[in-house]
Design the sequence.
């Protein structure tokens, strides 16, 4: 009996030892490992506010889906902020009121070089990806007789919200045709407001620069005799000698019921973050962005033109080290 009792004790001791040992790891290590894994999925920042643009524009639509993904994946307070777009977005990051933003490359170039809307160089913004092209979509009514950008002289034209990326490239293109705002009657209107003003006959034409299609133009197309205004490719190449972010592209036929392709200018969009975010946080945010590309493409078809293979090309601002880590890893 004494022997059986000793054997039972020894067996229990051996079982306890086995439970507490797995290649030198204690049973208590599993919760610690789980905690470490959970910590690895967290961000150091508690907030990821994404500055966008007009409520109906692709920036806002894409950012809404992205913010939802960040909240779900990292447990952070991620939300969008509707703004006047690119210039305001960069200023919000510079003022530490946003952590991330969608902007146009021409405005970003101005910011890092301290030009036009920026009185000094902005060093607090880093780029993490080059995105889809924004097409300059100049629209008028078919009965207006406005067919080319030169026809805008003397007309009342909406050029986007003041200091938006739309307004910046509208001004650059108008200047490239030898005109200034003094040669036109200018209204500062966002996408939806410009579409409403066109429909009401309050303006003659409007710039709505965005990815394709623009939802405000899709709505305007219903019951409005819409005319897309062309910009010849040779003229764009001439302007691009001083403004290299402009490229010649076509609005494909059928986009807004147009019977043929419409030549116009395009500018690539950029995804930027605060330079103060840590390398690890930006690495995770960048990786998650590309992992959720399918979700973004479902949200808005403009995202279908985001190519992970070329997303690190054509940067106009310094690449954040976190994004560099992602692209180096993705090779």
Sequence:
């Amino acid at each position: 009996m004494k022997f059986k009792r000793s054997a039972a004790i020894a067996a229990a001791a051996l079982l306890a030892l086995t439970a507490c040992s797995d290649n030198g790891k204690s049973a208590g290590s599993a919760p610690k490992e789980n905690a470490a894994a959970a910590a690895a999925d967290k961000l150091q920042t508690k907030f990821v506010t994404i500055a966008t643009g007009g409520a109906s524009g692709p920036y806002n639509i894409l950012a809404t889906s992205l913010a939802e993904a960040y909240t779900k994946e990292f447990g952070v307070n991620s939300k969008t902020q509707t703004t006047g777009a690119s210039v305001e977005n960069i200023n919000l990051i510079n003022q530490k009121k946003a952590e991330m933003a969608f902007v146009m490359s021409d405005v970003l170039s101005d910011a890092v070089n301290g030009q036009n809307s920026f009185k000094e160089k902005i060093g607090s913004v880093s780029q993490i990806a080059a995105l889809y092209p924004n097409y300059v979509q100049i629209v008028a009514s078919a009965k207006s007789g406005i067919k080319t950008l030169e026809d805008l002289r003397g007309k009342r034209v909406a050029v986007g919200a003041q200091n938006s990326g739309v307004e910046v490239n509208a001004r650059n293109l108008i200047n490239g045709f030898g005109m200034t705002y003094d040669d036109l009657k200018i209204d500062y209107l966002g996408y939806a407001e410009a579409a409403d003003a066109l429909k009401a006959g309050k303006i003659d034409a409007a710039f709505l620069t965005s990815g394709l299609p623009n939802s405000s133009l899709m709505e305007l197309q219903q019951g409005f005799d819409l005319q897309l205004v062309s910009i010849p490719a040779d003229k764009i190449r001439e302007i691009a000698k001083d403004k290299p972010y402009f490229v010649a592209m076509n609005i494909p036929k059928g986009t807004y019921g147009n019977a043929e392709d419409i030549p116009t200018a395009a500018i690539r969009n950029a995804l930027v973050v605060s330079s103060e975010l840590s390398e690890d946080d930006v690495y995770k945010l960048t990786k998650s962005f590309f992992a959720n590309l399918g979700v973004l493409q479902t949200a808005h078809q403009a995202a279908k033109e985001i190519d992970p293979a070329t997303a690190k090309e054509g940067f106009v601002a310094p690449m954040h080290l976190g994004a560099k880590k992602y692209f180096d890893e993705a090779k």
About this structure: The two ends are 69 Å apart (CA to CA). The mean pLDDT is 88. Residues 29 and 123 are 44 Å apart (CA to CA). The first strand starts at residue 47 and ends at 51.
